[in-house]
Amino acid sequence: MKPLVSVTHLTRIFDVSKPWLNRVIERLPKSLLTAVSDVSFDIPQNSVYALVGESGSGKSTIGKMVVGLLPPTEGSVTIEGVDLAREQDPEKIEKVRSDIQMIFQDPYASLNPRWRVKDIIEEPAVAQGKKPEALAERLLEQVGLAAEDAGKFPHEFSGGQRQRICIARALASEPRLIVCDEPTSALDVSVQAQVLNLMSDLREDLGLTYLFITHDLTVVQHMADTVGVLYLGRLVEEAPREALFADPKHPYTRMLFDAAPKMDGFGREIEPPEGEIPDPINPPPGCAFHPRCPLATDLCKRERPEPRLVGASKVACHHAE
Amino acid sequence: MTDPVLSVRNLTVEIPTRRGVLRPVDGVSYDIAAGEILGVVGESGAGKSMTGNAVIGLLDPPARITGGEIHLLGERIDQLKGEALRKIRGKKIGMIFQDPLTSLNPLLKVGEQLTETILAHLPVSQSDAEARALAALEEVGIPAATQRLNSYPHEFSGGMRQRVVIALALCAEPSLVIADEPTTALDVSVQAQIIALLKRLCRERGTAVMLVTHDMGVIAEAADRVAVMYAGRLAELAPVQQVVQAPQHPYTDGLMGSTPLASLGQKRLRQIPGSMPRLTALPDGCAFHPRCQRATDRCRSNPGPTLAACNGRAACWHPLTDEDRAAREATA
């Protein structure tokens, strides 16, 4: 079966140089930040693909490129066989665009405070020129709120309820793919459980596909079918969930797992991981993880490892086995 | 047993508003012993930070302490004002806030901030203070500490900045540290470093720690005892292992069950229906009863359950027993 989303050799470089006059006067070179570098993955229909990584690993940038909020510098994102950045036929573009929706991290910032919930939820449908009867009311009930809430304003709702409104809005255009950028990071655990359960139910009922962007490994372990681990803009490991959590191959993945707090880790004395993510403007040569890696050798300092298959996982490491 | 470092009795904080008096903290009592880490958990709005701020005297008016007593090393501190309070802050109680960028002065070098704090609280000379500042930075694991003394906060990464904040909180050798969500703004790997550092320093110096967080994983790993707060009241207070593995209060049970780790391999997460009541509309009796499956008429009537009125561990008329939990495991 053809995947719904296919990301190939995706790269995004940001120009973070000073203004050109300063550069000329201070004789500074241009400085470029490679946020995402040569990332490829596929998302099959009706599955959940999770991108995990720490801040600065490029996970949100990938999400933005998938929905088309940012153009890629190199490589391509193909959704249903259409490359949005290069496609010329406006009809095809419109068709695919309406199949993609996004849910953002902060439900306090992603809803217009001056709009009524009804208008917020119906906007994606209205933008497509459709106006189904009682759409907002139906969607509100689908996400576990009351139909009467349609006339209220966002400030009348709590964080979890707002995130439900965001989900209802995302459903309004009947999408096939929803990109969720840290959808539960701003929520308390008990509310997070409610929202995650809702998202699982919707996936089953509507046959949705999720691209799940998060730093929370416990959420990934619960939701994802396939997991991609990012480090400094590169995919260091990609594996089905069970394989990844049972037997992480890349030393960075292992470090992440060891560092994550455990519910049964009473008084656990861990050797905390060393160092921090390096500066993405001047990444280390070779494998970007080598300064923090316990397995690093001279080879890692010289040569960047290419992704290769080890068991069920695709790992970019010279020493993984 | 020695006297606790911090002893809070029946602490009540009130905020007068036009629509009546709100009680974000209501009759909270707990002790923290030397070298002990007390975790305070709860959802946003449960009153965790408010409790911490009340102890160090940082309540924003119109919020104020209206009842109860706070004793630090046997000395009553909740009625102190002005100069007397300032002597305790920083000297006897160190504070670590969530956002390391806003708790450092961006215009002063890190070394100056440390030296200033040490000079303000300890009777040492300028050169002694500088030596202590250097030692403090080295102790929290900042590489090349001698050069870093002359750096500004913006030159540090998030994790390094939080280390500086810890160094600042500990440099006057306080007997109590209040850490309010110290790792929420940090990445997982950095969070592990900070938690390990906090644990090590407090054990070495015998500092009592009040660790306020909403992250159950952090609590499980760092805390010795846990206080669970709900709608301004203590729901449960017990050693960490009991709270996580054998919670007695239905709210604690729901909270633990809703973390994804607890429902591994299950299709759906266990969830608590509804949401926490607003302080303006607290229900009668036990504040948790509208969301509780075990609620009876007794739970709906005043006075609500308190730790003291119940078994001293969970403020609940019908605490969960081992059999209840076993029965649920069997049906799941």
UniProtKB/TrEMBL annotation, chain A:
Q: Which GO terms describe its molecular function?
A: ATP binding; ATP hydrolysis activity
Q: Which Gene3D superfamilies match?
A: P-loop containing nucleotide triphosphate hydrolases
Does Nuclease appear among the keywords?
Answer: no
Q: Which UniProt keywords apply?
A: ATP-binding, Nucleotide-binding, Transport
One GO biological process from the UniProt record? peptide transport
Domain ABC transporter stretches: 11-257
Database matches in NCBIfam families: oligo_HPY (TIGR01727)
Q: What is this protein called?
A: Oligopeptide transport ATP-binding protein OppF
> What organism is the protein native to?
Pseudoruegeria aquimaris
Name the encoding gene, please: oppF_1
TrEMBL record, chain B:
Q: Which molecular function term from Gene Ontology is one that the record holds?
A: ATP binding
Domain of life according to the entry: Bacteria
What does the UniProt keyword field contain? ATP-binding, Cell membrane, Membrane, Nucleotide-binding, Transport
Q: What is its main location?
A: membrane
Q: Write down the membrane topology.
A: Peripheral membrane protein
Coiled coil ranges (UniProt) are: none
Query: What SMART domains does the database record attribute to this sequence?
Result: AAA (SM00382)
One GO term under biological process is: peptide transport
List, for all copies, the residue spans of the domain called ABC transporter.
6-256
List GO terms (cellular component aspect): plasma membrane
Q: Where in the cell is it found?
A: Cell inner membrane
The family database entries (PANTHER family) matched by this protein are listed as: DIPEPTIDE TRANSPORT ATP-BINDING PROTEIN DPPD, OLIGOPEPTIDE TRANSPORT ATP-BINDING PROTEIN APPD
Per the record, the similarity remark reads:
Belongs to the ABC transporter superfamily.
Protein name as catalogued:
Oligopeptide transport ATP-binding protein OppD
Which organism does this sequence originate in? Pseudoruegeria aquimaris
